[in-house]
């Protein structure tokens, strides 16, 4: 079977909260010496997502209004068998990919953008602020705000603002305001620009600017596209659908791979399966693929750190390269983040998830192979997961094992063609 689909009626009605099933307790976010970060949270986020952030409940109802918008934008998404790639690799492994690229914005990000916009409007918001790297999250939030009648301001990492002009076009089409970060719009942005007028920016800086903006107006909330518990919670629709799709073909995954920047795509795909791993009902490896230029899981420290550069967030226990880390300007802008979702970090620390690194040349080579064998052009971020999936399939070729490999296909690369062109022309660095 090449494509496994679900009817609209099987769109998940509940999100899965892995906090209820963790093998050890999740370390709490910490108050800082100034004592303002936790106090500021109700001014930054709607009360509804804060309730989800702190929830210990295993299952959280998805409001009917959100489920209707999920269906409107294409959920449930299909699960494909990558038979062309399998043939190219000459592997006995079966490779599946869950296609989040088929949403209107071309990525998984809409799953939480719709939910966060819905809850913010319910709490009385008129405008949302956020950051974006490659632009996928900014595009998703711009569309969600447009659908739900909110204004949207996006602080886009400066290097991606220049690298990916058509992401800006998409956000503008959805009525989003897009500002290169660091900017002169905020005190923190002006501080960074004073030190370096040509600063490439980082997700940490853009987060600081978006939070500062939200704190200046009681009708404005900040929204985050990854890292926090409630964001990963909303993304579990990916894994919940995938579980049903594997049940339809009477299979289970032996290896699950996703790319990680902040961890939302990976967590969303992995956590519903991780539930069965923790309970002993599933034997599966969980592999998190990250850029070698931003090796948070493989070289970062597991400790408390800020989620942003200015230190406006509470301290979270996570793998981190340091909140002042400025990553190289690789094309996978969605993965250029210094930290990691505390939930993903905890499971890595417990040995239930393994981090893998991939360099930039490898990912574009992988994207070209996938495009030629499956016909779909993956986003640079997604290529990290595909590369690790290919590595696992080639191991099966050596051993003869017939493993099922599930890749979370987080987004398409149709707005990342400059990176592919640089690769084809031989202009990319490692």
- Portion of residues in beta strands equals 15-25%
Integer average pLDDT:
92
Number of helices: 18
Q: Total number of β-strand segments? A: 15
Poorly predicted parts: none
Q: Helix/strand-derived class?
A: alpha/beta
**Separation of termini?**
37 Å
CATH class of the largest domain: Alpha Beta
Number of domain modules:
2
Kindly report the CATH topology of the largest domain: Rossmann fold
Helix content: 40-55%
Quaternary assembly: single chain
What's the architecture of the largest domain in CATH terms?
3-Layer(aba) Sandwich
Quick one: biggest sheet?
A: 7 strands, mixed
Mind telling me the C-alpha Rg?
Answer: 20 Å
| Shape annotation | globular
* Strand line-up in the sheet with most strands: 1-4-5-15-10-11-14
Write a concise synopsis of the structure shown:
With 430 residues, the protein is α/β, with parallel strands linked by helices.
Characteristics:
430 residues, alpha/beta, Rossmann fold, seven-stranded mixed β-sheet, tryptophan biosynthesis, pyridoxal phosphate binding
């Amino acid at each position: 079977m090449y494509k496994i689909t679900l009817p609209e009626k099987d769109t998940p009605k509940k999100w899965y909260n892995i906090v209820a099933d963790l093998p050890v307790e999740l370390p709490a976010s910490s108050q800082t010496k100034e004592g303002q970060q936790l106090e500021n949270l109700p001014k930054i986020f709607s009360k509804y997502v804060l309730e989800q952030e702190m929830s210990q409940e295993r299952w959280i109802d998805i409001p009917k209004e959100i489920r209707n918008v999920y269906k409107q934008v294409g959920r449930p998404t299909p699960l494909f068998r990558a038979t062309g790639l399998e043939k190219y690799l000459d592997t006995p492994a079966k490779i599946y990919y869950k296609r989040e690229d088929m949403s209107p914005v071309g990525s998984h990000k809409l799953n939480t953008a719709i939910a966060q916009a819905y809850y913010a409007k319910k709490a009385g918001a008129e405008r949302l602020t956020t950051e974006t790297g490659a632009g996928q999250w900014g595009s998703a939030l711009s569309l969600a705000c447009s659908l739900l009648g909110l204004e949207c301001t996006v602080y886009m990492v400066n290097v991606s603002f220049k690298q990916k002009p058509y992401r800006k076009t998409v956000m503008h089409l959805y009525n989003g305001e897009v500002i290169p970060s660091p900017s002169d719009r905020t005190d923190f942005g002006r501080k960074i620009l004073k030190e370096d007028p040509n600063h490439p920016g980082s997700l940490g800086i853009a987060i600081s600017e978006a939070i500062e903006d939200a704190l200046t107006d009681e009708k404005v909330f900040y929204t985050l596209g990854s890292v926090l518990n409630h964001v990963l919670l909303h993304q579990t629709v990916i894994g919940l659908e995938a579980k049903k799709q594997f049940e339809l073909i009477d299979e289970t995954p032996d290896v699950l791979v996703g790319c990680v920047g902040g961890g939302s795509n990976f967590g969303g795909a992995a956590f519903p399966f991780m539930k069965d791993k923790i309970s002993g009902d599933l034997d599966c490896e969980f592999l998190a693929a990250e850029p070698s230029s931003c090796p948070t899981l493989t070289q970062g420290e597991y400790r408390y750190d800020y989620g942003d550069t200015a230190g406006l967030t509470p301290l979270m226990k996570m793998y981190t390269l340091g909140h002042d880390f400025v990553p190289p300007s690789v094309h996978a802008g969605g993965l250029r983040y210094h930290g990691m979702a505390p939930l993903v970090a905890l499971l890595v620390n417990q040995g239930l998830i393994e981090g893998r690194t991939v360099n930039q040349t490898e990912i574009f080579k992988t994207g070209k192979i996938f495009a030629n064998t499956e016909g779909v052009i993956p986003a640079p971020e997604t290529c990290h997961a595909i590369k690790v999936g290919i590595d696992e399939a080639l191991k099966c070729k050596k051993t003869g094992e017939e493993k099922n490999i599930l890749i979370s296909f987080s987004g398409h690369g149709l707005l990342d063609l400059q990176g592919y062109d640089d690769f084809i022309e031989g202009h990319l660095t490692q």
